[in-house]
TrEMBL record:
InterPro entries: Nucleotide-bd_a/b_plait_sf, Prp24_RRM2, RBD_domain_sf, RRM_dom, RRM_occluded, RRT5_SRSF_SR, TPR-like_helical_dom_sf. GO terms for molecular function: mRNA binding. This is U4/U6 snRNA-associated-splicing factor PRP24. Residues 643-718, 719-796, 810-887, 935-1007 form the RRM domain. Functions as a recycling factor of the spliceosome, a machinery that forms on each precursor-messenger RNA (pre-mRNA) and catalyzes the removal of introns. Chaperones the re-annealing of U4 and U6 snRNAs (small nuclear RNAs) released from previous rounds of splicing, an initial step in reforming the U4/U6-U5 tri-snRNP (small nuclear ribonucleoprotein) that can reassemble into another spliceosome complex; this step involves binding U6 and facilitating the unwinding of the U6 internal stem loop, followed by base-pairing of U6 to U4. Residues 538-563, 1078-1090 have a biased composition (Low complexity). It is found in: Nucleus. It comes from Ceratocystis fimbriata CBS 114723. Residues 529-624, 798-818, 1001-1115 are annotated as: Disordered. Residues 577-587 have a biased composition (Polar residues).
Length: 1133
């Protein structure tokens, strides 16, 4: 019968073997099976407990063999006499102790076997009542209490009861000693171990094997790292922590990870970290563990490789090492791990043959000759079986072949045979097309050349007299053969290397010839790369078209199903079959009147991402991969989705600098993001400057090695999705929980809010296209019964146009409106030019309008006609200015008003940082400025990707908030609380808090006003732009001129005054054009026009009769004074 493998198989086998013990012979066989089981599964609690219980039952039966149910009822008298001698109480207790020592450091369940054992010891003590028995049990308890285990408190309580009953005089001193000596054991069970044990116990009780596996893997990693840390620090408890870690591995390897080669390998690494390889007994125990590992995972080439190497290190006889190799290849299980497992095993075996032949020679050379021939033939046979005769061409990395060449070179010293073997390999395309092969061949020739230089006698024998020069001509010939090969995968790597080698070693004739070869080859390679790029681009286009077609079909099918299910068309999901100019009015809010997005809508910035901004006109057409403007293709400024590659399999200690150095020859690298993996490897997302660079990396680095790690390089295409319309307070944790059912997330990218605080979207990059497809399937999901989630594949070249009247050009902006005008009056005037869908006047709290209105027409043509006909026309007492509204995307602050006690409104002040009023000490709500300052704090150090909802969620638990103004450009927020006590409390609690990787600071509003944006240096807060007063006006003839224009004053002749402007008092300084001024002469404007409150869309307005500031601008205090004055005049009238 085949030897069982694994705890469950052994238990079933032992149950069958121990069921019918008919005589002493069958009993001996059963006991031998138990001994083999405990040797194969050393740390198995269940096997040891079954073994001990079986032996104890034999001992009990031997006391009264003829009683009913006795295992020995049918034994002969001679066999019973032998049983009395074999199954004694001492032997029974000794076996229980042996089992306990084997599972002693299983923290969670070792008490099961201990409790049973100590119970038998107590029964013996009760019968005998001897001092020796009391001392023995006291000693057992002492050892148990210095061993960490989850039921330490119960064990201590049992020991106290034992002392109270059998040794009361020594109770106090003994318990005091135990308490002192057990401090380390109790400390071990505190902290993370206690949490891990609780999670494992809960997962087992709920029968959640997936959670149990995940927690146990995390537990193992933590335990290994913790033990290694203490070893490095040379702490006194290193051995205890090593034993605890070993006990945890015993639980894993006899449980759910019994056939997990990764956990077995981690266990071996853990054992080796605390093992003295000079001690034969420790090497012997390592070999035993490796035998168990290969029994459980016979398909793992890495484990067989470790087994052979450990046997070699232990100086195991050749026959025994060969037996290990035969055990690996005897069955077909090794091939279950693929050809890679077979090659890994043969690398260790052939390395052993080579080293043995180099050291010993003689008979070992014959063994090596046969071993290499058999290994190469075996790899070829199984490779063809697995992949077919036509598909299998050999090991691309020629690993066993390289060892064979080294064997010919070092052991047999046959350079000619080794060179012939190189040339044999060079005739096979799988090797000859790999530049790494030629690098290895060249390095071997250079080593041979260096050895020949050391011996002039060897040089004279190996080089003809005509060529007897001290140049490595054979190495040069290898490089020349490589670069002249038209199908070489990466000739660029060898061209420069070839020239450098010739310049260092070769004659001038060879150098001149090399220059010509490099020039010809370089031109050929450039043309070849162009063809490859064209083919890759065509494939990319085909894939995008197929994806677009699939998405269109899926959407049509989902729409059809939705209509069939409801029987009613949902106006939110069906596109009207009408002209774009006659579409329904947008429900999206503009920058001027929106603070929060609608529940079923999405952020207006979500329609266009933060990259590749461009003007939209009639000559612009979107195409796959770029934008077609006037017939010319313009690529997006930054196309992360198509220029990013995912590199997996990197070492765990890799750095960003190391990756950039490894890939820098392919092109400029914009960004590198490292993602640690559970297997101690690292995955990197590398963004290049162009798609061509990314494709080159995929073609030339996939399957290559970074140190000893083999890489997998894949495209980042279709891994990133665009997500919007989630709850405003969502953060990284929310997004990861939202997509936890889709797959692994590599990164979450949030947009900067410096220049638009209304942005509410993010980019989520998944590990695989399957995961991103599952995420896109969540498009339309309702969140919190309020938000309709939107998830789309990220594609910067095919961005959706903005929606709404402003974006569609159906809205007109009306400036300099009479303060007493109403919406109905405006509607009556503008309705003469088309269908007016809405009219909105901006009003102050007093009810008087600000002089600005927005009128939405049904079509673009109607809006254009109204702007042309009504611009500079007198309406009531004012000359109004009418123009088509321009889309603006600049919102540097976000204000959240919770209460109505806030005095100062931020309207009209840049960034919402209002200056104190010089007119009145009371605000509009009657609260003094000093009171406002006392209860207002500034929170600084916020990342510019955090919105006001998340800041509010951070601050709200401290106390009631009246108003919160977020200023991403300053990296902070201004927060007004209900009272000064709450503000002081918040200032103390928030200072030094870690939030989104930043340390927050608190201060006054003045501190925040002087705060510079992170990384902005000396630039102004609004970016690279100069202040508005110093900006030049737009170019003449611009189709999209801004609403507010700045003009230089007219030129003056020396000695003469400048021209006067009718109806306005001009002081001679430069003044900006406000909303109330027009470019044409104002025929109906007089000095008697009453002052008008400024429009929020302009910085200042020139008002007749008012003194102007030196820079032509008015501050917030001036506007407030004008407002109060106009209000008093109106009240008095």
């Amino acid at each position: 019968m085949t030897t069982p493998v694994g705890q469950d198989n052994w238990l079933a086998y032992l149950e069958e073997a121990s069921r019918n013990v008919k005589d002493i012979e069958s009993c001996t066989v059963a006991l031998e099976h138990f001994r083999r089981a405990t040797n194969a599964e050393t740390g198995s609690l269940e096997i040891w407990r079954t073994y001990c219980e079986f032996f104890h039952s034999l001992y009990v039966s031997s006391l009264d063999p003829r009683r009913p149910g006795s295992r020995l009822a049918r034994w002969s008298n001679d066999e019973l006499m032998m049983a009395h001698e074999m199954f004694t109480l001492d032997a029974t207790l000794q076996l229980w102790q042996e089992g306990y020592e084997a599972i002693r450091y299983r923290l969670s369940d070792s008490h099961i076997l201990w409790n049973r054992w100590i119970g038998l010891e107590m029964e013996q003590l009760v019968r005998t009542q001897t001092p020796e028995g009391i001392r023995r049990i006291t000693h057992l308890y002492r050892n148990r209490l210095v061993t960490p285990h989850v039921q330490w408190d119960q064990t201590a309580s049992s020991f106290a009861s034992f002392l109270s009953e059998f040794n009361r005089p020594a109770w106090e001193s003994t318990m005091q000693q135990i308490t002192e000596s057990a401090q380390t054991a109790k400390a071990v069970m505190r902290g993370p171990r206690e949490d891990f044990e609780y999670k494992l116990d809960k997962a087992q009780r709920e029968n959640r094997h997936d959670i149990e596996r995940a927690v146990l893997l995390e537990y193992l990693d933590w335990e290994v790292n913790h033990a290694s840390f203490h070893v490095r620090k040379n702490n006194t408890d290193c051995q205890l922590l090593h034993d605890v870690c070993t006990g945890l591995f015993s639980r894993a390897l006899t449980g759910i990870f019994t056939r997990d080669e990764g956990v077995w390998e981690d266990y071996i690494v853990h054992l080796c970290s605390n093992m003295n390889m000079d001690k034969p007994n420790e090497l012997s125990s390592l070999l035993h563990v490796l035998q168990r590992a290969t029994d459980h995972c016979p398909w793992s080439g890495n484990l067989w490789s470790r087994y052979i190497l450990a046997a070699e290190q232990a100086c195991t006889p050749f026959e025994d090492v060969e037996r290990i190799k035969h055990a690996a290849t005897a069955s077909s299980k090794l091939l279950e791990g693929g050809l890679e497992s077979l090659v890994s095993m043969y690398i260790a075996w052939c390395g052993f043959l080579k080293r043995r032949a180099v050291e010993q020679g003689g008979e070992s050379l014959d063994h090596a000759d046969m071993g290499f021939a058999a290994a190469l033939e075996d790899i070829k046979i199984h490779g063809r079986e697995l992949y077919g005769n036509d598909e299998y061409k050999g090991d691309p990395m020629f690993r066993v072949e390289r060892i064979f060449i080294e064997y010919l070179t070092e052991a047999k010293r046959n350079i000619g045979d080794a060179r012939d073997y190189w040339n044999t390999l060079a005739r096979k395309p799988i090797y000859a097309d790999n530049y790494i092969f030629w690098q290895q061949y060249f390095s071997w020739e250079m080593i041979v050349y260096g050895n020949e230089l050391l011996s002039s006698e060897s040089l004279a024998r190996s080089v003809p007299a005509v060529q007897r020069k001290r140049v490595p001509f054979r190495a040069t010939a290898v490089l020349k053969r490589a670069i002249e090969r038209r199908t070489l995968d990466w000739p660029e790597q060898l061209l420069e290397f070839y020239m450098q080698h010739c310049n260092e070693y070769e004659t001038v004739d060879t150098i001149r010839s090399a220059q010509d070869i490099v020039r010809r080859t370089g031109k050929f390679v450039a043309k070849r790369r162009d063809r490859e790029r064209e083919a890759a681009y065509a494939d990319h286009q085909t894939a995008q078209q197929a994806q677009a077609q699939t998405q269109t079909q899926a959407q049509a099918q989902a729409q059809a199903q939705g209509q069939a299910g409801s029987g009613v068309l949902d106006h939110q999901h069906v596109v009207p079959a009408q002209n774009n100019n006659q579409s329904s009015p947008s429900t999206g809010k503009r920058k001027r009147d929106s603070a929060d997005d609608s529940a079923d809508g999405y952020s207006k910035e979500a329609a266009i991402s933060d990259t590749s901004k461009r003007p939209k006109n009639d000559s612009t057409v979107a195409i796959d991969g770029g934008i077609l403007v006037d017939g010319t293709e313009v690529k997006p400024k930054r196309d992360r989705e198509n220029t990013t590659v995912v590199v997996s399999g990197l070492p765990g200690n890799v750095t960003v600098g190391g990756i950039k150095k490894y890939l820098r020859e392919f092109g400029q690298i914009h960004n590198v993001l490292l993602v640690p993996e559970a297997d101690n490897s690292t995955t990197a997302m590398v963004e290049f400057d162009s798609c061509d660079d990314a494709r080159s990396v995929i073609m030339l680095r996939n399957g290559k090695y970074f140190g000893e790690s083999q890489l997998t390089v894949s495209s980042g295409f279709n891994l990133t999705v665009f997500v919007t319309n989630y709850p405003p307070a969502a953060d990284d944790a929310f997004i990861r929980d939202l997509f936890k059912g889709s797959g692994d997330i590599l990164s979450i990218r949030w947009p900067s809010l410096k220049y638009n605080t209304h942005r509410r979207f993010c980019y989520v990059t998944f590990r695989s296209p399957e995961a991103s497809a599952k995420a896109v399937a969540l498009d339309g999901k309702k969140l919190e019964n309020k938000y309709r989630l939107e998830v789309k594949y990220s594609d910067p070249a095919n961005k959706r146009k903005r929606q709404g009247a402003t974006s569609e050009g159906r809205e007109v902006h009306v400036g300099n409106v009479d303060g007493d005008a109403t919406e109905d009056e405006l509607r009556a005037v503008f309705s003469k030019y088309g269908t007016v869908e809405s009219v909105r006047l901006l009003r102050a709290m007093s009810g008087r309008n600000f002089g600005t209105a927005f009128v939405v027409f049904g079509t673009v043509e109607q809006a254009i006609k109204a702007a042309e006909e009504l611009n500079n026309v007198k309406f009531r007492t004012r000359i109004i200015r009418v123009e088509v509204s321009q889309q603006r995307n600049f919102k540097t602050s976000a204000k959240t008003t919770v209460g109505l006690n806030s005095a100062a409104d931020d309207t009209g002040t840049e960034g919402g940082l209002a200056a104190p009023s010089a007119v009145s000490e009371k605000g509009l709500s009657g609260v003094s400025a000093a009171e406002i300052d006392a209860r207002t704090i500034a929170l600084m150090g916020l990342p510019d990707t955090v919105n006001d909802a998340r800041v509010k969620a951070l601050v709200a638990p401290i106390g009631e908030i009246i108003k919160l103004v977020l200023l991403p450009a300053q990296g902070g927020a201004k927060i007004e609380f209900a009272d000064s006590a709450t503000a002081g409390k918040a200032q103390l609690q928030l200072s030094g808090v870690e939030f989104e990787g930043r340390t927050l600071r608190t201060g006054t509003v003045k501190d925040l006003r002087n705060e510079k944006a992170p990384g902005s240096g000396s630039k102004p807060a609004n970016g690279d732009k100069k202040p508005l007063a110093s900006q030049p006006g737009p170019a003449t003839g611009s189709k999209a001129a801004p609403a507010t224009k700045l003009f230089a004053p007219p030129k003056r002749t020396l000695g003469k005054g400048g021209p006067k402007r009718s109806g306005l008092a001009i002081s001679g300084v430069k003044k900006p054009m406000g909303v109330g001024m027009t470019t044409a002469p104002a025929t109906a404007v007089s000095a008697s026009v009453p002052p008008v409150a400024p429009s929020p869309d302009t910085k200042a307005d020139v008002v007749a009769g008012e003194p102007t500031k030196p820079n032509g601008m008015k501050n917030n205090a001036d506007f407030k004074a004008l407002f109060l004055a106009s209000k008093k005049e109106k009240d008095s009238a």
